[in-house]
UniProtKB/TrEMBL annotation:
It comes from Spongiibacter pelagi. It holds the Pfam family 4HBT. One of its GO terms (molecular function) is acyl-CoA hydrolase activity. Keywords: Hydrolase. This is PaaI family thioesterase. The keyword Phosphoprotein does not apply. Residues 43-118 form the Thioesterase domain. It comes from the Bacteria.
Amino acid sequence: MNAEQLAVFFKQEFPQAEVLIEQAGGGFVRLRKPIDERHLRPGGTVSGPVMMEMADAALYAAILSELGPVALAVTTNLNINFLRKPSADKDIIADCRLIKLGKLLAIGEVTIYSVGNDEPVAHATGTYAIPPK
């Protein structure tokens, strides 16, 4: 699936996600999440759950970009390291690259940035179970 097809799929299946799919292909995706006051925690930073949502959505999108619309692929593991404080007034970007795409499992890594800053704010790895055909 390309970025446009993924955007349609996410809008239909996960309208609550509110992520923009900027790039998809070759086992790589880039997602953007517009940040506003709903996404902040005390102290003026993007909340951990928002960054975890981005990591999970990016992994899912990367898998779908390679396999097509497999709605029942599910997260089996997600590990995240929060590296530095994201900007409260900037969107966040999640770049995901698949490490392994097998018949039953997919593994990927996600790096999350605040727009305009090259230093990552979080790094995640995750595994998805792919339903048998």
